[in-house]
Automatic annotation (TrEMBL):
Pfam families in UniProt: PDZ_3, Trypsin_2
Superkingdom, natural source: Eukaryota
GO MF terms, alphabetically ordered: serine-type endopeptidase activity
Family per record: Belongs to the peptidase S1C family.
UniProt entry keywords in alphabetical sequence: Hydrolase, Protease, Serine protease
Annotated Low complexity bias: 26-44
Protein name as catalogued: Protease Do-like PDZ domain-containing protein
Organism lineage: Eukaryota, Viridiplantae, Streptophyta, Embryophyta, Tracheophyta
Length: 553
């Protein structure tokens, strides 16, 4: 299993560790994020996307506030309507500079003790470790931080700026996909004298941003500044999903995770959460924007818990090829994307079919490249429209099928993967019989067994199912023999490792619970487990024939 200090290449969660050099706490798929002082294990990136993996910011105190503006220069005024020109008669005071970020006192340092599950030995846990990250106070006596900052938490404490007291915090909700966590503190003293952070609208390109937090390099609060350089759908390392994100050029370092990003009016426009670490890139950080933050908060307020971001349960392809559009019966003025596959467990499976052309979503036309209008001069992937909805809500989808246009009201739901990307804080399930250890495969399990580069080192059969297989039922799992604990009863089976269990006594294995039920209720003299072995040795080794040509004659 991943050591807390391990991080995925590229996008990684950023954090500072007290006792170990861990950089990432949370499991993830496409990209990796890091948490606080002691980040949890980073998630591995998708194949072919190593160059775009990120590291989530951490929290450390250490930077000084920006130097005061020069005499005579224009200086932004907090909550003001424009720029104010500083008189040339005297130096600018630090109190005036601080007004650019009026809610800096609402930024807190998050201390977390983590105890991660041991997926390779699921009956025990790994040694606990500590980390620190950033967070900030919002309305309703609540605090926001990153999900990877409090992943597998056993204790969370918060410390305010300028205070020497750490307050015990309660975790209200963890949004794994969006990498956001909501905390609160019962002690009334914690909330005294602090104004909550106010949220601003989604910034435009080149808008100034200031990231505040407690990154590595010191113990006091740190401030870095930059501009918004890109707005697009990003891969969230910790969440193993793709949501709207901001790219900025402000330095985001280990420990900045969970800290707010302010605009020049002192309004929060996002949460720092990961950065790009690549030999050809410098100062590329990523921020969770306010639309994603507000979706998380409102989701919690509506249902009392985090229910997730819905998706369309389909695989689709672009329709940029004119011959393909003609073959699908599309008119010259029609645009859209083609459905390749539909998830059997998704609500869409009841109405959408392979080769359908999705023309629009909720009345917004989809282009042949899968984008929709976003803002003036900008386009964005249509998955943004889906992510703005809430689980259980309905959306109107217009589809072209056999040259006829159909409209469907689709109930949206979250994604059910055959190989789960997260375990949501639950301890891993396992079952032992006759020394055979059975487990359900998940991304954290693969990372534990094969390291951060599991997408290259894990068995091909497991990777194919992880990347391409779809669950046929909501409770389907990929069950494997994890290992064999040597005993007299299993002599000769010691080398079986991570091999899928297809059936038991001739009955297909649906999930781990199903396997346990069948074994426990079995009255037969022998237990027969059908495992997936590749019997075709020649194909496995890419050998075209079992004999050379001269021996065939």
């Amino acid at each position: 299993m991943d050591d807390p200090s391990s991080t995925s290449k590229g996008k990684r969660k950023r954090g500072r560790k007290h006792k170990a050099a861990a950089e990432n706490h949370a499991p993830a798929s496409p990209v990796a994020a890091t948490a606080a002082d002691n980040p949890a294990p980073a998630a591995a990136g998708r194949r072919g996307r190593k160059s775009r993996r990120h590291e989530a910011p951490a929290d450390a105190d250490g930077s000084r506030p920006p130097s005061p503006p020069r005499r005579g220069e224009a200086k932004p005024v907090a909550n003001g309507g424009g720029d104010a020109v500083v008189e040339a008669g005297g130096p600018v005071g630090w109190d005036e500079v601080a007004r650019v970020v009026p809610s800096m006192d609402a930024v807190v340092k998050v201390f977390c003790v983590h105890t991660e599950p041991n997926f390779s030995l699921p009956w025990q846990r790994k040694r606990q470790y500590s980390s620190s990250s950033s967070g900030f106070i919002i309305g309703g006596r609540r605090v926001l931080t990153n999900a990877h900052s409090v992943e597998h938490y056993t204790q969370v404490k918060l410390k305010k700026r300028g205070s020497d007291t750490k307050y015990l915090a309660t975790v209200l909700a963890i949004g794994t996909e969006c990498d956001i966590a909501l905390l609160t503190v019962d002690d009334d003293e914690f909330w005294e004298g602090v104004l909550p952070v106010e949220f601003g609208s989604l910034p435009a390109l080149q808008d100034a941003v200031t990231v505040v937090g407690y990154p590595i390099g010191g113990d006091t609060i740190s401030v870095t500044s930059g501009v918004v350089s890109r707005i697009e759908i990003l891969s969230y390392v910790h969440g193993s999903t793709e949501l709207l994100g901001l790219q900025i050029d402000a330095a985001i370092n280990s420990g900045n995770s969970g800290g707010p990003a302010f605009n020049d009016r002192g309004k929060c426009v996002g949460i720092a959460f990961q950065s790009l670490k690549h030999e050809d890139a410098e100062n590329i950080g990523y921020v969770i924007p306010t639309p994603v933050i507000m979706h998380f908060i409102q989701d919690y307020e509506k249902s009392g818990e985090y229910t997730g971001f819905p998706i369309l349960g389909i695989e689709w392809q672009k329709m940029e090829n004119p011959d393909l559009r003609k073959a699908m019966g599309m008119k010259p003025d029609q645009k859209g994307v083609r459905v390749r596959r539909v998830e059997p467990t998704a609500p869409e499976s009841g109405c959408l079919q392979p080769s359908d052309i999705i023309l629009s979503f909720d009345g917004i036309d989809i282009a042949n490249d899968g984008t929709v209008p976003f803002r003036h001069g900008e386009r964005i992937g249509f998955s943004y429209l889906v992510s703005q909805k809430y689980t259980g809500e309905k959306a109107l989808v217009k589809v072209l099928r056999n040259s006829k246009v159909h409209e469907f009201k689709i109930k949206l739901a979250t994604h059910k993967r055959l190989v789960a990307a997260h375990v949501k804080g639950r301890p891993p399930s396992y079952y032992i019989v006759a020394g055979f250890v059975f487990a359900a495969v998940s991304v954290p399990y693969l990372r534990s067994e094969y390291g951060k580069d599991y997408e290259y080192d894990a068995p091909v059969k497991l990777l194919v199912k992880h990347l391409h297989a779809m669950a046929q039922s909501p409770d389907e799992q990929l069950v494997v023999v994890s290992q064999v604990l040597v005993a007299d009863i299993n002599i000769g089976y010691e080398e079986i490792v991570n091999t899928q269990v297809l059936a038991f006594n001739g009955q297909p294995v649906k999930n781990l619970k199903n396997l346990v039920s069948m074994v426990e209720n079995c009255k037969d003299e022998f237990l027969k487990f059908d495992l997936e072995y590749d019997q075709d040795i020649l194909t496995t080794h890419c050998i075209p024939s079992a004999m050379s040509d001269d021996l065939k004659t």
